[in-house]
Design brief:
heterodimer, A: D-Maltodextrin-Binding Protein, domain 2, 8-stranded mixed sheet, 18 helices, 46% helix, B: globular, Bact_solute-bd_prot1 (chain A), TAT_signal (chain A), Extracellular solute-binding protein (chain A), transport (chain A), signal (chain A)
Chain lengths: 441, 301
């Protein structure tokens, strides 16, 4: 059979069409692609992806359940997961920020895990704040990945040079210690905070408010920072003074994301910051930090120096609503965030020992291995006390939380740069919350 | 016996459609459909956090913009940003194009250097300028300190004015080469006889510039104005990396607000409305430019 040029072109065109069409249709379809091999599709942000994979390999070896793990860049994690679930190709099990929980439940991405094996036991073994953060409208949605709370991190050597033997308990004391360090010429700006606008939450603002027993919202998520609760306004006033009058707070903070603040702390360029407890592990690691051995943690200073509290966050493992491999996916969740056959939180312990990630399990605070590890970078008593007094943001359960957090960053920046007065700032925050409530009603 | 049928050749119009059909199909699928769909989405209450609340609301998203403080503030910031970026770009591009239009030693090297920023993606541009403006280790601080212009390192991006101007500067640096190329192309088409004649008529350098160069450059200038206005209105990556929109709202442009609304707040309805407003504004401005400049240009480029 002979083909002329026209016939060859026709056949080639048909062949190309036949090849491209299923691909195009698949790309346009809204259906969830079937894994086919029964594996569990698991996604998380890309923190220590190699270690995660190693841990998952152990799970597969022990259970014979295949896991198809995809790490996603942290900066795009929420957006990509939302896009996947919207397009119908979401994972079976995944990491969930407590910040995203309400929205993802409302978006029908997640299913509750109440009644599944071992869940009650896990929830009775963890700190109440973590249990609260993983519960939405009375239903439980996650098993704990890690948790942390905020503390004051200080450079004991710089404080010692300035004649201080203990860290500040009140904000007034913090300012006066920093002023002394400044006046002695030890540091131009002893306090550094990450205050550049970004998509992540500003734990230090919440931490400062919670430290003094205040809150921005009541339990019905109504804003109180402008009415019954004056702590936010007082904290903002302190921040404004520290940045613009005593100038102990670095004005460059407005240009700093968390990593540059970490680097500055590790280079002895700041005496104080407010950050997560697990940061101390890096700060006191001689291979990474010039300040190793000098960095200590303390309770977040409060307005009166007597009341103390702090903020906690919880990262969890969640179960997708539409998973077709629910049993296997939940077994994976249990392996990662639950208790093993010996009633031990194996993976939580693994993460603490490998990377110092905070744990939600109360019993781990007394575990000998954990304590030995903890003593290398922090005071176990303060570490445990912070876990006890930490509480989550009570506004996480509203769909407009992300918008409010973003607005709060701008307002706090205005206070730090002396463009907005604290009274106007709290009024603006309250107004924003009311507007958002109305918009989402 | 085989029957030979004579094929009638396709007409020119049919051929044109046939040849363009693949491109039209691709453009329809990849460009026209998403654009049309985004308009449809802009007529909906469509927030991925609340799929149950999704519904058609007509022009409500657009009506809400008039009382949306964040939008009005971003619109104002964008307008000033466009004016500053456009003004600096046109003036600097014109100067650079006039210089590069002359014959001198090292012109090729200067031309290559002038075009270099254009090859840089916006995010990389933002990262580079963030390093330069860094309050602790920035090259700008180092240079100014060595020149004795400042006593200590400054946090350049922490004041509203500083952040705005430095962000605009970073944007200009990134987009300037494109304008230079367009204007340079326009300059190269001006017949040298016109300058000779003007010189014979005893016209000085300034008059030669205003009477010969500028009229010939009106059309290239029109292209520069339209495209750079669109670029400045859509500016996102450099600003996002450099300031994130801060301090406060100082550098929150409408494009930044749009990306935040869609990707961070997952409000696709409102975000699409923002996008369509940006499109409408740039369209109106472009039509204004054309009305103002097109008829005044006497020469085709």
């Amino acid at each position: 059979m002979e083909f002329n040029r026209r016939q060859v072109l026709k056949l080639a065109g048909l062949g190309l069409t036949a090849t491209a069409t299923p691909g195009l249709l698949a790309a346009c379809s809204n259906g969830k692609p079937a894994a086919g091999d029964g594996s569990v599709k698991f996604e998380g942000w890309d923190y220590e992806a190699t270690l995660v994979q190693q841990n998952l390999d152990k799970f597969t070896q022990a259970s014979n359940i295949k896991v198809n793990y995809t790490p996603i860049t942290s900066a795009q994690y929420v957006q990509k997961v939302v896009a996947e679930f919207t397009g119908g190709g979401g994972p079976d099990a995944l990491y969930v920020y407590d910040d995203s929980l309400a929205a993802w439940v409302e978006g029908e991405y997640l299913q509750p895990i109440d009644g599944l094996p071992g869940v009650d036991e896990v929830y009775s073994s963890i700190f109440p704040g973590n249990a609260e953060a993983m519960t939405y409208q009375g239903k439980r949605y996650g098993l704990p990945y890690y948790t942390d709370s905020n503390c004051l991190i200080y450079n004991a050597e710089i404080l010692s040079k300035a004649g201080f033997s203990k860290p500040p308990a009140s904000l007034e004391e913090l300012e006066s210690q920093a002023a002394k360090i400044k006046s002695m010429g030890l540091l131009e700006h002893p306090i550094g905070l990450p205050a550049q606008l970004s998509d992540t939450w500003w734990a230090w603002v919440w931490g400062l408010v919670f430290a003094s027993g205040g809150d921005l919202f009541d339990n019905q998520q109504a804003p109180i920072m402008n009415t019954t609760d004056t702590v936010t306004k007082d904290v903002l006033t302190w921040l404004q003074n520290a940045a613009n009058k005593s100038k102990v707070l670095d004005p460059a903070s407005l240009q700093l994301l968390p990593v540059p603040v970490d680097n500055a702390m590790k280079a002895n360029r700041y005496a104080f910051t407010i950050g997560a407890r697990y940061a101390l592990r890096d700060y006191n690691d001689a291979s990474k930090s010039k300040a190793a051995g000098k960095m200590k943690m303390a309770l977040v200073p409060s307005l009166d120096g007597k009341v103390h509290g702090t903020i906690s966050n919880t990262r969890m493992y969640g179960l997708a609503k539409d998973t077709e491999v629910k049993d296997d996916a939940f077994k994976l969740l249990t392996y990662l965030g639950g208790l093993d056959a010996n009633k031990q939180p194996n993976t939580a312990k693994f993460w603490f020992q490998e990377r110092g990630l905070g744990f939600a399990y109360k019993a781990m605070a007394k575990d000998a291995d954990v304590l030995a590890s903890l003593k290398k970078f922090a005071d176990p008593a303060i570490y445990a006390h912070l876990a006890e007094i930490a509480r989550p943001r009570n506004v996480l359960g509203v769909a407009w939380y992300t918008e409010f957090e973003t607005e709060m960053h701008k307002v706090v920046q205005g206070v730090l740069s002396n463009q907005v007065q604290p009274s106007a700032a709290v009024a603006s925050l309250a107004q924003s919350a009311e507007t958002l409530k109305k918009k989402y009603s | 016996m085989s029957v030979l049928t004579e094929r009638r050749p396709l007409g020119d119009t049919a051929k044109a459609w046939a040849l363009n059909a693949p491109a039209i199909t691709v453009i329809t699928l990849l460009v026209a459909y998403p654009i049309g769909y985004s308009f449809y989405v802009s007529l909906q209450r469509n927030n991925l956090k609340r799929p149950k609340a999704k519904r058609f609301i007509g022009l409500d998203n657009y009506k809400a913009l008039f009382s949306d403080d964040a939008f009005l503030s971003a619109l104002k910031v964008s307008a000033v940003f466009v004016v500053v970026v456009l003004g600096l770009t046109v003036v600097l591009a014109l100067i650079l194009a006039l210089v590069l239009n002359e014959r001198f030693r090292g012109r090729g090297l200067l031309l290559s250097l002038a075009l270099l920023p254009w090859a840089m993606p916006g995010v990389v541009n933002g990262l580079m300028w963030r390093t330069i403006f860094d309050a602790k280790t920035g090259a700008l601080n180092g240079l100014m300190l060595q020149l004795g212009l400042i006593d200590s390192y400054q946090a350049w991006l922490t004041s509203s004015t500083g952040a705005f101007l430095f962000t605009a500067l970073a944007q200009v640096w990134n987009t300037l080469p494109f304008s230079v190329i367009i204007l340079l192309a326009g300059l190269s088409t001006i017949p040298s006889e016109l300058y000779d004649a003007a010189t014979v008529d005893r016209a000085g350098a300034f008059r030669r510039f205003t009477q010969v160069t500028v009229p010939w450059l009106l059309h290239p200038l029109l292209i520069v104005l339209i495209l750079e206005t669109m670029n400045a209105f859509r500016a996102f990556d450099t600003i996002y990396v450099l300031t994130g929109g801060g301090p406060g709202d100082a550098t929150t442009t409408i494009a930044l607000l749009d990306v935040q609304t869609v990707l961070t707040f997952t409000d696709f309805g409102l975000g699409s409305a923002y996008a369509w407003v940006i499109t409408a504004i740039t369209l109106i401005i472009s039509v204004g430019y054309i009305g103002l400049l097109y008829r005044k240009g006497n020469f085709e480029v």
